[in-house]
Amino acid sequence: MLSIYQLTLRQLSGRARLLILVVLAVMPVVTAALLLAESGTDSVSDFDIGVLSAGLFGSILPLVVLAIAASAFANEIEDRTLANLTLSPVPRWRIALPKLLASITIAGPLIALSAFLTAHIGFLGEWKATIAVTVSAIAAVVMYASLFIWLGLKSPQAVGVGLLYIVLWEGFFAGFITGVRMLSIRYYAIALMHGLDERRFVDYDHLSMTAAVVMTALVIGGFFFLSVRRLRRMDVP
Amino acid sequence: MSHNGDLVVSGAPAAAPVIRVNGVSRWFGAVVAVSEVTFDIMPGITGLLGPNGAGKTTLLRMMTGLAATSTGTVTVFGEPVRDNPPLYRRIGVMSEHETVYGFMKGREFVTMMGRLRGIPNLEAAVDHAIGLVDLADAQHRSMETYSRGMRQRMRLAGALVHDPEILILDEPLNGADPRQRVHFKHLLQQLATEGRTIVLSSHILEEVEQVADTVLLVVNGKLAAAGGFRAIRAALNQRPYHVRVICDSPRRLAAAVVALDSVDAVHVDPDGAIVVLSRNVLDLQIELPKLARSETITLRRVEPLDDSLESVFGYLVEN
């Protein structure tokens, strides 16, 4: 398992890709700092919605994870090197798990640091809010990684389909159709955030903390299961 | 070897087959890539021969479990090969795709392949596999700096590192230079004498002829013939060939050549070339120069018109 983990880390940590992702991760931090510099005219609610929901959780976080996780298998399929892994005598979950862990290893710290700094600046160093944002961001990274790893195995257009999910489903439909939020990783993460700090997103319809935790576990476990099943059933190029 | 092809050359095996392909078909949408193929593979070297697009790679992918069959079964050592990872301890595969992890050194690649297969004494096994493909000097270089042939050899080392009982190689000689080909053939023969089962595919008749004990001819997704190479070759030599002859006196040569026993028909093209139809091309090769010398005719060019694999396979399928 360590071999596949190390291999995936090397595949995913190209300098140009990391540079772009770092620039993306810095953007919410800079936005929070700029808002703070504008003499605090924005309310906490505006910060929640504008910077956290739309900026960090609505675009930066899923885009960063999409760029990494969707490539974990998709690049192997495109390069036709996946057979090197699937022709080994290891259970398929021991191929999928290191791919997932490697994606989280790269995206996780980047997003966690971005979320921590953004919240720390935006909430003037208040720890409860900062921890709530950071923990829910990490949970979101793992959920998105599990989804996009599977998507990379399932579709040759994984990045395009992932973008549609982020922009159309979570960004557009979930904005005005309450039911859609019940099938949205972004809103599970926001529900987690609200559960950890009830002052966050007070105006939203939320899942309960328990439901958010259950949905988080279901998304991670469910898409991981689908990835393993896909590896067992697919024709490997 | 037993099979359902059109030309049966050898008898049924006494021992249990290592690989059994039974009534296998595979289609992609409306395209039938492999159709109702049945054969057994025994220890030794088996060549899977056929023109490009014949279905060789699809067959090999089903034999390795990389692709599912639409109908039929593939078993290796009596077990289904599909979704059976433990079986890969006993199988080494080198696919036709030449892509490698460019950021890896050759030794790193072979080490990773060995580690994935959980072999003991990893370093010694890697040394042995790299030594077998004669790439010890280049093992610490990045694989993106390798030539095509070197990449193929290092990939072969990756397929060999766990000392598999079965080796499945798809077009392994692609990109190999003549020296590498000779080395590769010796290596395969050495591995086969150790009791391994080796299956290699190629679209080049001579490539397979030089190494394989048994040949499976695949045409249009069907098994056209199977058996010992000499018997198949003899069958090929008895098929009618068209041979084009250019000389300084075509009408005189045409009149003389039609009397040869090895010639079935002759006609003269408008451009002055003679086209000879022969069912015994080996005799024609000997008799034609003798005839030209006795008739004091200068032969400028003699070329087979239909010596491509496609025509050979076409003949086998039609008959």
Number of helices of chain A: 10
Tally the helices of chain B: what do you get?
A: 10
Low-confidence stretches of chain A: none
Assembly type: heterodimer
Strand proportion of chain A, as a percent range, falls in under 5%
Shape of chain A: globular
According to CATH, the homologous superfamily of the largest domain in chain B is P-loop containing nucleotide triphosphate hydrolases
How many E strands of chain A? Answer: 0
Q: How far is the first residue's CA from the last residue's CA of chain A?
A: 22 Å
Description of the molecule:
The complex is a heterodimer of chains A (237) and B (319). Helix content of chain A is 81%, strand content 0%. Chain A has one domain (2-233). By secondary structure, chain A is mainly alpha-helical. In chain A, helix 3 runs parallel beside helix 6. The longest helix of chain A has 36 residues, at 44-79. Chain A is built from ten helices and no strands. Chain A has helices at residues 2-12, 15-37, 44-79, 82-86, 93-122, 127-154, 158-176, 178-181, 185-196, 209-233. The model of chain A has no long low-confidence stretch (mean pLDDT 91). Chain B is α/β, with parallel strands linked by helices and 319 residues long. Chain B folds into two domains: 19-234, Rossmann fold; 236-305, Alpha-Beta Plaits (2-Layer Sandwich). Chain B contains ten helices and 15 strands. Chain B has a seven-stranded mixed sheet, sandwiched between helices. In chain B, helix 2 (106-116) crosses helix 3 (122-132), helix 2 runs parallel beside helix 4 and helix 3 (122-132) packs across helix 4. The radius of gyration of chain B is 23 Å and the shape is elongated. The two termini of chain B are 20 Å apart. Residues 1-13 of chain B have low confidence and may be disordered.
In brief:
The complex is a heterodimer of chains A (237) and B (319). Chain A is mainly α and 237 residues long.
